[in-house]
Amino acid sequence: MDTALENQAPAKPSGIRAPSKVKLPSSPSRFNGLSEMSDSAANSRGAMGPPNGSIKHKPSGLPEPPHKQRKTLAERGGECGPTAAAPTNTRPVNNAVKATIANGARGAFSASTSRMPSANSSRNTSASSFNGSVGSGIKGPGANGLHRARSAYGHVRSKSSHQGARPATSMAQHDEELRPERKGAYTLSISTNPKDTQDNFKVPKRRTNKDKLPSTAEASTKRIFSSVSTPGSLSLLSSVVPSSPEGPAGDDCDSVLDGMSALTIRSSSEDMTYSRARRGKLSGKNSSISLSSQFPSSHIPRATPKPVRADALTQLCTPTRSRNGPKNQDASAPFVNRFTNDRVIPVFDTENRMDNIERQFEMFKQTLEADVKNQAVDLKETIKVLRSRVHELESIRAQLMSVNEELRSDVKDAKSYMSTANLELESTRRNHTFEVDDLRRKHNNEIGDLQEKYRKEADRVRKENEEAAEKVRKDFEAQIDKLLKMHTEDLAEIQKRLNNEVEEERMRRLREVGELQTEYSLKVQSAGLEADTKERETQNVRGELINVKSELDRERALKTGLQGQLSEATTHNLTLDAANKAMKAKIDFLESDSQAQSQAFNDLHRRMQEAIEAAELANEKLRQEETLRRKLHNQVQELKGNIRVMCRVRPTHVSETEPAKIAFPDSDTDSKEVSVQGPEKQSAMGNVTTANHAYSFDRVFGPTSQNGEVFEEISQLVQSALDGYNVCIFCYGQTGSGKTFTMSSADGMIPRATAQIYAEATRLEEKGWRYKMEGSFVEVYNETYNDLLGRSEDLDKKKVEVRHDAAKKTTTLENTVSVALDSPSRVEEILKTADKNRSVAATKANSRSSRSHSVFILKLVGENSDTGERSEGTLNLVDLAGSERLEHSKAEGARLKETQNINKSLSCLGDVINALGNAKEGAHIPYRNSKLTYLLQYSLGGNSKTLMFVMVSPLQAHLQETVTSLKFATKVLNTHIGTAKKMTRA
Ligand SMILES: Nc1ncnc2c1ncn2[C@@H]1O[C@H](COP(=O)(O)OP(=O)(O)OP(=O)(O)O)[C@@H](O)[C@H]1O
User: Fold this and answer.
1) Domain-by-domain residue ranges, the chain?
2) Who has greater pLDDT, 804 or 151?
3) Going by CA atoms, what residue is nearest to atom 11 of ligand 1?
4) What pLDDT does 15 receive?
5) Distant-in-sequence, close-in-space partners of 723: CB < 8 Å, separation ≥ 6
6) Which of 143, 263, 573, 969 has the most CB atoms lying inside 10 A of its own CB?
7) Is 733 annotated as a binding residue?
8) What pLDDT is recorded for position 703?
């Protein structure tokens, strides 16, 4: 049986807790094992449900049931949990198991509340007595050890007695006395330490029967050893050392053990270790007897001494006070009564002592065997309990399975419920769709009905309106008819009256004529002399008749007038009819949507007002911006300089073979430079060199440039003239360099400038500006002014005078034709006229155009009625005569005079520009030195903006003249003249 238990115990699954009977471990490792079991039991409790029957803790291994089933599951779990489902008689077993695990976790000496059969009460008592001893005030290791040994021993005996195998009454009594001190000690150790007996060893009074103490322990010890070390049950591993030959003796085990230093007995059962301890002190670690189980050494408590042989035991069992030296071997040293603390001298009956010990140990052995048997019985019962527990768990598992099945079935039901619900939902959704469709159809039908109703209502209203309009029309027509009728009646009455009157008159006249004729015939018959008188009377009557006839004609004319009135009335009637129709249409229109029309009209009116206000604001803003633009524009022009010079090189003609070497170094970037390679010069040493002349201007136009490109550069100056500045643009250069082409050709500066001015003036009209533009075209030939717009035959005859207004700084031309530029086409006429006049002049004096300076003067006077501003500007576009040098021209006679005058005027122009650059304010400027500068007095200098084009011939033959022109232009460029002033008056 024991072997079976030993084999069975380790094979227990960790999740199954050991019953209390077999649990009490004798080694820490066993405790640990139980602790582990406790932990695993705790875990398994989670798996199986709590032992106390609460299933509110959801088993961790179970899946989470649906919400619907949670409560049911909990309830079911509560019903089918270990407590609820277990048989009533198994509930204590569960409690016992639980208590055991708890004890195991805390230690082997904890109290057990097990209700397991057999020895439960004694174990409880033992545990409690141990605890009591701890708090009883017994100090020192010896006393404690003895006390524990005593308690344990009493415990064993009490178990035996409980099982009905109690061997002696004294032991029972002793157990009863020691019961409160029995703690859960299963290590029995008895020790005596002679050295300590004086102070520590305490023996109950009734145990100090000297007569019963064994005299020697040798033989008994052997017997004890042999008796307790039966194979398979117990083994004596330690030594038995009697405390003294004179130690207390008795016929029971207590008496024997009182004389021992220590006795430890352990069961060989794997699951239990029983130790019996006797009271008495045993300080010596070596003086102990241990009955130890076959546990591995690691399971044996450390206090257990190593096993000794039997002969050694014999030696050790010899009573002795102390093993430490003769000094302590005082046989008369008193023992101390543990209860009274009386010092007593133990009397050992050495002869009978071993017999007593043997006998007592025999009894003890029997007790232990009985105890083992009891333990076996307990184990069987435990197994039974465990099996019942297994059955119980099986039943729980089965219940859980059934619960699981139920849950699955519930899940299945839930799924089916969900599918049903989904179907119902789908059907509901479909029904809703149908209902929505029905509602929509119904709604549409209602809308249709309403529309039909409104349409009918609208038809009815329209019909009523039409009827009302028809009624109005009929009333109106009735009134018209009535009026017409009245008119017709009036006319008929008048006609009738007139006819009656005419008829009456005619009848009256006829009657009178008859009367007269009767009277005449009577008188002719009566008086011959009176014939002439009668004749004259007749003639008078005929005259009267004529008068009457004329009166009749007048009446007829009156009638015609009346008929005209009638036709007029008819026309008026037709007009009224048309008005009636228009009114009817208007009535229809107004009645159709009078409110919307009114609203739309109001909106339109409001928007129109807003638009007008916005337009006024925009115009005001435009005016302000225009003023600002003018200001900024002229600031820019001032920054650029009031006299600017640009160079233009004309292309070579097909017939021209020797071009000069003219380069444009920066034509790809700024186009401000031109370089001319001079003629070859041979030095005295015979070296031929060529000089390279480079010039820089505000802008350089190459041979490929077009007039439009050139005009872009001067357009801002033209704008300045419109803004109230005097602007002078002139072309300077030798004959044939392209001056006329640039200035007066069909797309030259003059037509372009006038076109821009006209367009700009038109644009400025919306800003309140009104411009008056007058053009004059004069030439200066041989220091005389000629009007190019006058008659060609008057070209050299009519004296043209130039007047200056110093206050206004304006120039006026007398005896010239001024053409109002009311359209761009007028410029073409001007240019054609000028060209024709110069052509006529040319026939007289050969190439007149090259021999004179032509000046196109455009006066611009603007007024702004909104702001009250006024501006007066003049644009002078000057085509100068060719600038040949005298020695090169080889001119003679008239040609020489022309050339001299040209050079003079050009020289004076240079002088004026130079003087403007050098002079301070108020200094003399030699305008009067030439007709040209005099004419341009207020267009050159401080009050003007000047632009000079220096025209360059590309021919090598003209190279010297080209260089001269470029030098002159450079001189002009380097001249700084004063700031231009705007000719405006507020
Ligand atoms: N940029 C140009 N492109 C093409 N041809 C040009 C250009 N400039 C001038 N010409 C031509 O060169 C010739 C001479 O030009 P233009 O008569 O304008 O010179 P000019 O300096 O006015 O001479 P003059 O002093 O005798 O009046 C003309 O036939 C003209 O068409």
Assistant:
1) 643-681+688-985
2) 804
3) 738
4) 37
5) 630, 633, 634, 871, 873, 982
6) 263
7) yes
8) 93
Contact criterion met (CB below 8 Å) for 727 and 721: yes
Q: Is the pLDDT of residue 281 over 60?
A: no
Atom of ligand 1 nearest to the CA of 882: 25
Bridge partners, residue 419, by sequence? none
pLDDT tens digits, one per residue of 885-901: 655 555 567 777 778 88
CA of 731 to the centre of ligand 1 (A): 12
951 C-alpha to ligand 1 centroid (Å): 9
What are the tokens at 502?
Answer: 């005419």
Strand partners of residue 787: 778
Which pLDDT band holds residue 768 (cuts at 50, 70, 90)? Answer: confident
Instruction: Note the pLDDT tens digit of each residue in 861-889.
Output: 999 888 888 888 899 999 998 877 655 55
The ipTM is 0.97
* Interhelix angle 169-178/141-162, nearest 10 degrees: 120
Residue 776 labelled as part of a binding site: no
Residues in CB range of 106: below 8 A, 6 or more apart? none
Give the mutation target among 711, 735, 741, 742 for probing the ligand 1 site: most ligand atoms within 8 A of CB: 741
Q: Is residue 956 in contact with ligand 1, taking CB distance under 6 Å?
A: no
Q: For residue 651, name the pLDDT band (cuts at 50, 70, 90).
A: very high
Among protein residues, the one with the nearest Cα to ligand 1's atom 31 is 741
- Cα of 740 from ligand 1 centre, angstroms: 6
Give the integer Cα–Cα distance in Å for 490 and 492.
5
- pLDDT, residue 883, reads 76
* CATH hierarchy code of domain 643-681+688-985: 3.40.850.10
Question: How far is the C-alpha of 263 from the C-alpha of 236, rounded, in Å?
Answer: 9
Dihedral (Cα; 824, 826, 829, 831), 10-degree rounding: -60
Residue 689, SS3 per DSSP: strand
**What is the reported pLDDT for 867?**
82
How far, in Å, CA of 830 to CA of 814, rounded? 18
Q: Which residues pair with 875 in a beta bridge?
A: 727, 858
* 654 torsion bin: left (phi>0), alpha (psi -120 to 50), beta (else): alpha
Residue 741 CA, closest ligand 1 atom number: 18
User: Which helix H or strand E contains 88, and what residues bound it?
Assistant: none
Q: Is the CB–ligand 1 distance for residue 288 below 6 Å?
A: no
Q: Which residues pair with 335 in a beta bridge?
A: 344
**Selection from 254, 216, 262 nearest residue 238 by Cα:** 262
Measured between alpha carbons, how far is residue 853 from residues 647, 667, 936 in Å? Answer: 19, 31, 12
Give the gyration radius of the chain's Cα atoms. 77
Distance CA 679, CA 660 (A): 9
Q: Is the torsion defined by CA of 28, 34, 37, 42 positive or negative? A: negative
Rounded Cα distance, 128 and 109, in Å: 9
